[in-house]
Every structure is written in C-alpha cells, then in structure tokens.
Amino acid sequence: MLHHYTQPSSFRQRIPLTMMASWAWEDWQWMAYLLATILFATLLVRHFKRRRMVALINKLPGPEGLPLLGNSLQVTVDNAELFKLIIQFCQYGEVMKLWFGPDPLVILSSPRAAEAVLSSSRHIEKSNDYHYLHSWLGTGLLTSSGSKWHSRRKLLTPAFHFKILEDCLEVFDRQATLLVDRLRPRADGQPFDILSHIALCTLDIICEAAMGHVINAQNEEDSEYVKKIKKINYLMQRRMTVIWEQPSLLYWLLGLARQRDECLSVLHNFSKETITNRRKINQQNVDEKSG
C-alpha cells in the first residue's frame, strides 16, 4: 500500500511566515536607517546654522557669562536693580549682547540702532518671550507676527489718522502737562526709571481718548486697576528674565500662575466693562441720529 506523505500544515506555513517576518524586519531596518539619516541631517543643519549665529552674536560686545547659564543670574533682580544693570550694560555700546542660557539677547541702547529695527515692516518676528504676554494681551498687533500682524496693522492705521488725533489733542495736552508736573521733582541730574511715569500717562491717554474711560492713573496709583497693571508687569518681566520661572509647571508650583490669573481677572473684566459701555454709548448716538 502506498502512502502519500503530506506535510503538516504548520510546516507549510512556517516558510512563508518566516519570510514575511524577515521582510518585515528588513523594512523596519530600512525605515530606521532612513529616519536616523533624516534626524542626523536635520541636527547637522541646525548645528551649522546655530554655529554661524553664535559666531555672529559673539562679535558683539557684552558682559562675560557663565557656561550654560550665560548672563541669566546677572539679570535675576527686581525692576529697580534691572534698570541700573541696563544703564551699566549701555557702556558696552549702542548694540550689545547677553546670553540667557542658550538664547542670545541683543540690546539696542541708541535711537539710531532702534530705528533700524522699529521702522522695518519685514523683521517683525517676535521672540519666544512674547508668548508669556498672550494670556494678557492676546495675539494682536503688539504680540503677533507675519500675516496676522499685517492685517492688524491695516485695521489700526485709520485710527491714527491726523484728523482723528486732532480730536484727542485736549486729552494729550492735559495728561502730558500732568506728567511734566510729576517729573519736575526728579529733574536733579540723576538717572531714574521714567518707564513707570510714562506708562501711567499712556494708560490715562489710551483709556480716555480711545475708550472714553477716565481712570486718573497718574493721580491714583493705589487704585485696584493700576496696582494690577503694575503687578502683571512685574510678573511678566520677571518670568522673561528668571529661567526657573519659565516652565509652566514650575510657574504653577511656585504659586505665580495664581497671582497672574488674579491680575488678569481684574484687567480683563475692566476691558470688557469698558467695551460694553462704549458700545452702549455708540448705539445711543446712532439712535439719536436716526431718531
């Protein structure tokens, strides 16, 4: 009797399964090699770009920094001390550099140097530091870049027409006169931080001229709104200069996120209330004209 030998089904499947496994492994190898090559090429390009950037930045004068940290520890001070540091840094020239860890910062200390940047409509990309302002100011003209910046610029340009500004001259004059009166006692020949005075004057002008809301910030610095403005400025500036406050998790663990949110609650509520009141006034004017 003849018996036909039949291979077990498991044996019949063993060869193709092994071949499939081999092919799959080879495919994964090629994919891994390809990804590794792309990653290596990307890192290489970034390395040479950064190398060129570092070489150019290091041509600028500036204080010596620590390895890895750069000048981060030097600027970890309060606002008053930071102002004194900036005055010292200006001795390096009208264009100088600082290093915040791996990130460079170029400081312009003369009108001529600043004009080259501020008058440009091409170089409008914002640094990563502007990200911290988004929770407060959103992504408008001050903090946006690219096409969004251009669109916001077009929307706001008509608002600064000379005819419109002429209607605000009385507000400008009154608030500027008050500013001069506040600065007169400081005119003793010694340097001081003028930013806080300018900020309060600007706040008075913007709120009254643009929104019709008189807040009298220059005379009432103890009002809740003015105090929150100062507090949020302090928090934002400190976060930009203190490297361990920049990670969101650490910022929350340190309790600074809660302080920021408290300030933003007051500021945003004020803005919403002002906009609502302004809309009511505009609607009343429309109704009176149509009636």
Question: Would you summarize the structure shown here?
Answer:
The chain has 291 residues and is mainly α.
Report on the structure:
With 291 residues, the chain is mostly helical. It has eleven helices and two strands. It has a two-stranded antiparallel sheet. The radius of gyration is 30 Å and the shape is globular.
* Class per helix and strand makeup: mainly alpha
Stretches where pLDDT is under 50 for at least 5 consecutive residues are 1-5, 10-15
Write down how many β-strands occur, each being a DSSP E stretch of 2 or more residues: 2
Principal-axes geometry comes out as globular
SSE pattern, N- to C-terminal:
HHEEHHHHHHHHH
The side-by-side strand order for the widest beta sheet comes to 1-2
Number of helices: 11
Distance between the termini: 116 Å
Question: Which percent range fits the helix content?
Answer: 55-70%
Biggest sheet overview: 2 strands, antiparallel
Rg of Cα set: 30 Å
Strand content: under 5%
Mean pLDDT: 81
GO cellular component, one term: endoplasmic reticulum membrane
Family: Belongs to the cytochrome P450 family.
InterPro entries: Cyt_P450, Cyt_P450_sf, Cytochrome_P450_Monoox
Keywords: Endoplasmic reticulum, Heme, Iron, Membrane, Metal-binding, Monooxygenase, Oxidoreductase, Transmembrane, Transmembrane helix
